[in-house]
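Example 3.2
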Amino acid sequence: MQALEGIKVIDFSKWLPGQYCGMVLADYGADVIKVEAPAGDPCRGFTPQKEAGLSFWNLALNRNKRGLTLNLKTEAGREILRRLAAEADVLLEGFRPGYLDSIGCGYEVLQKLNPRLIFCGITGFGETGKFKHLPAHDLNVIGLAGLDSLDDAGQLCVGEVQVSALGSSLNAVAAITMALYAREKTGKGQRLDINLYDTALSLQIVGIASRLGCRQVGGSPFGRLGSYYNIYKTKDGRFLTVGTIEPKFWRQFCHLINAPELADQQFDFDHEDEQIKRIAAAVKTKTLAEWETLIGADEFCVTPVHTVDEALDSDITKEAGMLVKKQEDVGEITDVQPAFKMSATPGSIRRRAPRLGEHNAEILQALGYDTAARAQLKKDGAI
């Protein structure tokens, strides 16, 4: 048994936030139908590709899902959407606010067809307000929300983790599962409004609280960066992360870099810039490999900054068992395992991502469209 077994999700998302949410729901047993236009979602064309129209991005985010093509510009396509929603538990979408309303398939219409439907939209700035129509991807949102910051060299870093996008995905997963639980009590579905900007702000909750507190009472914010919580460059241009918040770890670190005079000055914020310069100079005297050798098996939150390739090949990743190779009809695929472990209802990877429209026949047949009807839909450009 899996946690979401028996839950049907209609996934209209075509970008990372919704696709990752649908992936998590599918990993834990939901029957997720991935719906895309007949031309396919843009991510099918990303590189590298396992085969034409089946990018590794697509393989990762749409595993465990069934695939259906649908042209919402046709009335026949919209009617299929309404039939799908009438039988679904969850509808997941990332259209511009108001688009589904404009084609007669908005929440109010679908809720009347299926009062138990949970309708989840993931947008850049929410379903209401004067900024709702602004287009935005993760990079735009984290910049607007203050999550981008300059490093010591004045360079901006674009990380592999799209913070607001994936944060919104997980917020959507949480909201959907809570709405499913609430439905068990009320018998009714509801509308969920998840957006990247609110997520980006909420993920900074401790930093925002500290900054607002400093506005109110003065002082310096605790935590985000300090001499004891920072990243320092090594002799060979690599980096060492120092997360020595606990005083005992800080003292060990000061001993490591031969700076015992700093041991009792961890929270001396008046001289923090001097401390950072002192530590930076010390760390730059050795290569990353030399520091790793000196640290050895000691455990005090001083660790190397790995490249993604180094992380993939690391003992930690191997020990975690997070990468699994599977043989599929398209060849070997390496998947990243579901991240949270459940003892009784675990997640699993049961099938590869669908080719474009791979499950059209079985999904439409279940909705009452026989072979002749499906052929007409194809001829009319509805699927």
